[in-house]
Design the sequence.
């Protein structure tokens, strides 16, 4: 099967979906590919900051997402041995310290809005296996497997929005510099105790960060930093030792944690790293989001940065510029911003323990 579109976007995460919607709205024909049968199947970052909030509001999407459900964080708290010692409240002009938005809510709104345009097409269960090129080496589309059938999609521009292990980036031969940060991350999810306020709670346990993030629908996400590569050894220990440390740090979750965390199987491991590519595209191809600048979870920049990339790229793409887009100038605007954000992440990670020095 052969298909034709002006822009083929690989990856239906927030960045890819938003770009597809904005282009469809501009009357550009766009095909959005997602390798899973359903969007939002994998865990991804789910916190909006002020920049991400502004982008959604600017495009009339925020209120629609809010109707499905989101949660504004009302405080940032630092705890030591079960006691609160530092409380940060939001700037009144902002009104929150981040917003939890379930990935499914965000993507549902964006994709449903995109579907209102006949020039938008979403193809799930579609895995890219090859990039198409012309005789001059310009990328002209993708070859993919959809529901077991091989298809070719010809396009004027291919956009890789397919995450930190981007197939598009690898197939295009674009190099990436990977930076390890010395830690991995364990996630777990538990119901919130009664009367739990929307908050982000931080503690220092064994010299590493332990966090509780309030989520929509009455849940708490636990984020436990562990030393890089240590999970195989940690799993040999009784999981109850972690529960004891969690309860010592945050006594409020004692009953809930013991009831809902029953084994190491209740945790999800994230191999933490950041990466950065000097090349954000080639002739006929562009990269956005984690595909070109993977963020660590620190500061929740990833989701927002991907949407910022999409917002900027959509603003300069027209029927006339798609085939000869100046990716160098496009990327230049973002490179300095991304470098700054990644530097902030490193600083926050390295200085986290100092938040507890004055108290102790």
Sequence:
């Amino acid at each position: 099967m052969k298909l034709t579109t002006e822009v083929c976007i690989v990856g239906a995460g927030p960045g890819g979906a938003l770009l597809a919607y904005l282009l469809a709205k501009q009357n550009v024909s766009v095909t959005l590919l997602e390798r899973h049968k359903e969007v939002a199947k994998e865990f991804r970052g789910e916190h909006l900051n002020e920049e991400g909030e502004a982008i959604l509001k600017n495009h009339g999407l925020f209120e629609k997402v809010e109707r499905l459900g989101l949660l504004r964080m009302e405080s940032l708290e630092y705890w030591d041995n079960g006691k609160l010692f530092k409380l940060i409240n939001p700037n009144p002009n902002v009104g929150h310290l981040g917003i939890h938005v379930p990935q499914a809510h965000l993507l549902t709104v964006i994709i449903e809005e995109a579907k209102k345009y006949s020039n938008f097409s979403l193809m799930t269960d579609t895995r890219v296996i090859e990039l198409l090129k012309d005789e001059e080496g310009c990328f002209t589309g993708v070859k993919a497997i959809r529901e077991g059938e091989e298809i070719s999609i010809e396009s004027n521009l291919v956009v890789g929005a397919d995450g930190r292990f981007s197939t598009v980036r690898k197939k295009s031969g674009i190099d990436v510099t990977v930076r390890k940060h010395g830690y991995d991350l364990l996630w777990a999810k538990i119901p919130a105790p009664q009367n739990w306020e929307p908050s982000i709670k931080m503690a220092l346990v064994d010299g590493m960060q332990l966090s509780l993030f309030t989520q929509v629908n009455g849940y708490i996400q636990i984020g436990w930093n562990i030393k890089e590569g240590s999970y195989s050894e940690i799993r040999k220990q009784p999981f109850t030792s972690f529960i004891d440390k969690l309860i010592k740090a945050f006594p409020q979750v004692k009953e809930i944690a013991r009831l809902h965390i029953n084994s190491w199987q209740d945790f999800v491991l994230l191999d933490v790293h950041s990466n950065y590519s000097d090349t954000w595209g080639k002739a006929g191809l562009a990269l956005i989001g984690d595909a070109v600048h993977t963020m660590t979870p620190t500061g929740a920049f990833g989701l927002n940065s991907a949407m910022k990339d999409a917002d900027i790229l959509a603003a300069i793409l027209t029927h006339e510029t798609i085939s000869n887009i100046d990716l160098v100038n496009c990327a230049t605007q973002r490179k300095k911003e991304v470098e700054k954000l990644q530097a902030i992440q490193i600083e926050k990670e390295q200085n986290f323990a100092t938040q507890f020095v004055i108290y102790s």
